[in-house]
Design brief:
Shape: globular
Helix content: 25-40%
Strand content: 15-25%
Structural class: alpha/beta
Oligomer: single chain
CATH superfamily: Thiamin diphosphate (ThDP)-binding fold, Pyr/PP domains
CATH topology: Rossmann fold
Number of strands: 8
Largest sheet: 8 strands, mixed
Distance between the termini: 60 Å
Length: 278
């Protein structure tokens, strides 16, 4: 019997060419996703990438699998519905700091607490790139590099890891676009985790935030195993500088819906539909 030819990352890339700015960190995330898919031997026909709106949310078009480009902030809602209806699929939701933590913030916190078995990758460049440099929920309060916020936004930025932990996320990781191999490893671990996995990626925007190239000098990888105690994780996430990468927190707990529960009861669904008939 002939052995199957090992898949390569390029086998998972579509013919659509990315239109991100040269130097954008999202290229690294795209490469990491396809590398992780190849390493896991994922079936393209059983994989769906769902996104909202923003520079990062263009990504499903660049991957040779099923994809859904949704509306602003609703990628997680669509992805959860799909995974609940089709638990056999591998579902990844993709977004940015605005799509995920601003207009989609409510969906994010409920996705964390609901713990549907899927992965969410947030590509955070701390700015609204598509709307020419507006401040986002993760923009530093003293960032004054934009004409739109000449004195800085003046409000404290979100801490995504702390927000995810407080909302109940059982798997929290962080990567940096300058280290795509680490991101690929984290994505593979996230996909295999039995529950909701949240990967926060620091993805530089050199068009509106050229100073983010300095991240390379300050990022560091976490030593040792991920934290498993929520109190210890909360203390770390609230007081850290946000540049530590790796699998930060991991706790296994029951997913929703419970394992073995039928996703759709066709009889009950037909009865409900009939009750609305005139």
């Amino acid at each position: 019997m002939m052995q199957a030819i090992p898949l390569k990352a390029r086998d998972f890339k579509s013919d659509v060419k990315p239109i991100w700015c040269p130097g954008c960190g999202h290229f690294s995330v795209l490469n990491a996703i396809t590398k992780a898919m190849a390493a896991l031997g994922i079936d393209k026909d059983d994989t769906v990438l769902v996104s909202g709106i923003g520079c990062s949310s263009r990504l499903p078009a660049y991957v040779d699998s099923y994809g859904f480009h949704g509306v602003h902030g609703r990628g997680l809602a669509i992805a959860q519905g799909l995974k609940v209806a089709r638990p056999d699929l591998t579902v990844l939701a993709l977004g940015g700091d605005g799509d995920g933590f601003s207009i989609g913030g409510n969906h994010f916190i409920h996705a964390c607490r609901r713990n549907v078995n899927m992965t969410y990758i947030a590509m955070d460049n701390e700015v609204y790139g598509m709307t020419k440099g507006q401040a986002s929920p993760t923009t530093p309060m003293d960032w004054d590099h934009s004409k739109l916020t000449p004195h800085g936004p003046g409000v404290r930025p979100f801490k995504p890891a702390a927000l995810a932990l407080a909302s109940g996320a059982p798997w929290i990781g962080r990567g940096y676009s300058g280290n795509p191999n680490q991101i690929a490893k984290l994505i593979a671990e996230a996909v295999e985790f039995p529950g909701f996995s949240f990967l926060h990626v620091m993805s530089q925007c050199i068009t509106f935030c050229p100073e983010q190239t300095d991240w390379k000098a300050v990022v560091s990888e976490m030593d040792g195993p991920p934290l498993a105690d929520a109190d210890a994780a909360a203390k770390q996430f609230l007081h850290e500088d946000g540049f530590q990468t790796g699998l930060l927190y991991r706790e296994e707990r029951p997913t929703w819906p419970p394992v073995g529960e039928t996703a759709v009861d066709e009889t009950a669904l037909a009865s409900l539909a009939a009750s609305f008939s005139v």
